[in-house]
Known about the structure:
Blueprint: E1 2-4, H1 5-8, E2 12-13, H2 18-27, E3 31-36, E4 45-56, E5 59-68, E6 74-79, E7 89-93, E8 109-111, E9 114-116, E10 119-120, H3 148-151, E11 158-162, H4 173-182, E12 187-188, E13 209-211, E14 219-226, H5 235-243, H6 251-263, E15 268-271, E16 279-283, E17 289-291, E18 297-299, E19 305-309, E20 313-316, E21 320-321, E22 333-340, H7 343-353, H8 358-363, H9 373-387, E23 390-391, E24 395-398, E25 406-409, H10 413-418, H11 424-433, E26 437-439, E27 445-448, H12 459-470, H13 493-507, E28 518-519, H14 521-525, E29 544-545, H15 549-558
Parallel strand pairs: 13-16
Antiparallel strand pairs: 1-11, 2-12, 3-11, 4-5, 4-7, 5-6, 7-10, 8-9, 14-22, 14-23, 14-24, 15-22, 16-19, 17-18, 19-20, 20-21, 25-27, 26-27, 28-29
Helix pairs in contact: 5-6, 6-9
Amino acid sequence: MKFSLSWLKQHLDTDADIHAVADACNRIGLEVEGIENPADRLKGFAVAKVLTAAPHPQADKLQVLTVDKGDGAHLQVVCGAPNARAGLIGVFGVEGAVVPANGMVLKKAAIRGVESNGMMCSTRELELGDDHDGIIELPADAPIGTAFADYAQLDDPIIDVSITPNRQDCMGVRGIARDLAAAGLGRLLPLPLRGEGRGEGNFPCPTQIRTDDPAGCPAFYGRVIRGVSNGASPDWMQARLKAAGQRPISALVDITNYVMLDHGRPSHAYDLAKLTGAVFARRAKDGETVTALNGKDYTLTADMTVIADEAGVHDIAGIMGGEHSGCSDTTKDVLLEIAYFTPEAIARTGQKLALTSDARTRFERGVDPAFLDEAVEIITDLILSICGGEASEIVRAGTPPVEARSIAYDTGHCARLGGVDVAADQQTAILESLGFGVVRGDGNWSVSIPSWRRDVHGPADLVEEVVRIYGLDNVPSTPLPRADGVARPTSTPAQLMERKVRRTAAALGLNEAVNWAFLSEKEAALFGGGDWTLANPISEDLKVMRPTLLAGLLGAARR
Length: 559
């Protein structure tokens, strides 16, 4: 799960830097796999101005530019971009800079007999987009000589966190922010709702929505938004999607992907013009086929849940949408699908079809069944503010499986199971900061479980929550009691003597060689061949059991 620091701060009010965030994540069980800064890849690239542009004497499609990179020195650069011209302000890579797209190190070179110092860059070359029709054009007021990463505000570090299967609530940035707030790194901010998506809409939903498979799809919420304009998504959204490793596609697709990463809530947008009649969740028919968004055809079975209309299947439910009804640049009206799918059903379907997706990863772990209305509002907010349009009333088909769950909890469990005595008031504060409800009594407490924590089942799970936020480093190291007879020596006299000889030899400055017990047939033949040959070796070089230790020693000496 990748996200940028600025993205996290949309949910977490904190002054912590990326390293403090990483340390806190590791402390509370969210293992950090890496940290990267996009600005590091753009060292040596600065805002520069083209002073002159003249035809190359030896090539019709090349120009010879004079470039001002802000330090008073004017450099000659050969450029083949059709939009290169005098007065243009763009991005210049100095000698020694590494081009992110291909790893090429820029250096002074002669191009068709004309010296070139550095390079004017395109968006694709800097891995900031797919445009390669010309070099980047910046506004006229862009400050010459400024590092491009600073000018473009790309100094936004990205953190990669490994989410274990039981922590489905942390498959969105907001869930991670909630955990970090509980750990004392800041304050969890309210949901970022702007208000456009609230209410029941401006007109009745023109499409019937229902679920005919309550076992696989207990709840299917949806609405139509008409009159949208599906262009490119805003720069801020594209930057966050790229930080998460996603490729921006179009505003409508990017919005659904963004909400999935932001809140751990997958959804789907259909082009309404490509649908026929009612849209509903149902079981597939044996042998039914669908072409998914990845361009591949899948044959379905009767135990799989799909989203279909009166003409056929459009969506492998909870895993991947269909190619036919996907949104395009010409889409004017969309149908939103915000549904809850049974985790076990999604996992079985994905395994049978050998089809993975970000949506499947979240649905098979279990998304928050109570986060449906809020998801509709958030997605609608984004579509109306970015794409325009007008929203219909919300259709709520089925019932999400939201059940009130509570656990009887004794605060003494923390010391008995976790090995650390945490004060009752502190346990209450930790649990409530994670979204649990605590009703304190004289003996046992009653702790209600939030809808997004389907992994919590008993008192031991609550102890784990308290201890990981309190700090595993604060748990004292206590040796286990040693019962009589458990630790009797088991080494033989020969083994004890061997250990003593090896340690003595090492203390005298000798080196021990530890080699493979197997070698290749060719090497074994030099020593008369081996008596044992593996039928299924891990490598042809490790096929025959060594006939002598000398073979390994000679091999080590050769290396």
